């Protein structure tokens, strides 16, 4: 192939410095209806309100565009995650904090995504919500359809979900509201010098988990 990497003179560090922040990926993984998208969205609002530059990539949304040609076979799921990881790397190079909300059920795929990013720039957030709770929520009716055989290869029913062995942070949404969950994430980011604004904590404007988690 007649292609050559073109070196850019403007560095990732310079782009991040212009935004007064560090850039990295927050990768939310968990079952459908565990609360990944809701928490990522709420966290992005909190970060944006304090001046951080962010972008959220959601599993369903990218399948409307970038990954609309992919299905849900194991092979397509691998390619889905590979593309998202490469896009995430571009956002990080642009100095942006990127939040990714994807079931990403297989450990090897999450490890692949981690390997694409430089060390320390991939933060795995395991949204550890029991399958029974996710089925009770079932906001899109997907579990019901999977149980009735209308959907095949559905994670947690007839396709495996491999929980992370050593995620950077684990959030259990079963008995917590969105505000509490987001505060846990912000504390982690502050303790690891990824954000520095204490005023991010205690924002009471986020609705209850019970009505929003998906």
TrEMBL record:
GO biological process, one term: sulfate assimilation
EC number(s) from the headed UniProt entry: 2.7.1.25
InterPro entries with a match to the protein in the record: APS, APS_kinase_dom, P-loop_NTPase
UniProt keyword ATP-binding present: yes
Catalytic activity: adenosine 5'-phosphosulfate + ATP = 3'-phosphoadenylyl sulfate + ADP + H(+)
Highest rank taxon of the organism: Bacteria
Keywords associated with the record: ATP-binding, Kinase, Nucleotide-binding, Phosphoprotein, Transferase
Binding site for ATP: 30-37
Limits of the APS kinase domain: 23-171
Signal peptide: none
Active site: 104
Pfam families: APS_kinase
UniProt pathway annotation: Sulfur metabolism; hydrogen sulfide biosynthesis; sulfite from sulfate: step 2/3
One MF annotation (Gene Ontology) recorded for this entry: adenylylsulfate kinase activity
Protein function: Catalyzes the synthesis of activated sulfate.
Family: Belongs to the APS kinase family.
Annotated HAMAP family: Adenylyl_sulf_kinase
Protein name as it appears in the record: Adenylyl-sulfate kinase
Organism listed in the record: Oleiphilus messinensis
């Amino acid at each position: 192939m007649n292609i050559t990497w073109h070196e850019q003179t403007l560095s990732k560090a310079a782009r991040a410095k212009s935004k007064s922040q560090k850039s990295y990926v927050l990768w939310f993984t968990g079952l459908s209806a565990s609360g990944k998208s809701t928490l990522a969205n709420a966290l992005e609002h909190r970060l944006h309100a304090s001046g951080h530059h962010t972008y959220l990539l959601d599993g369903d949304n990218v399948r409307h565009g970038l990954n609309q040609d992919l299905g849900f076979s194991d092979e397509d799921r691998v390619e889905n995650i590979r593309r998202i990881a490469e896009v995430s790397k571009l956002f990080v190079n642009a100095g942006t904090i990127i939040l990714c909300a994807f079931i990403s059920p297989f450990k090897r795929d999450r490890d692949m995504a981690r390997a694409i990013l430089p060390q320390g720039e991939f933060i795995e957030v395991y949204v550890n919500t029991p399958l029974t709770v996710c089925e009770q929520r079932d906001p899109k009716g997907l579990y019901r359809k999977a149980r009735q055989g209308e959907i095949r290869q559905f994670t947690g029913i007839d396709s495996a979900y491999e929980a992370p062995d050593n995620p950077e942070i684990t959030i259990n949404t079963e008995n917590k509201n969105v505000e509490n969950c987001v505060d846990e994430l912000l504390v982690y980011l502050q303790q690891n010098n990824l954000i520095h604004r204490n005023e991010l904590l205690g924002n009471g404007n986020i609705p209850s988990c019970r009505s929003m988690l998906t």
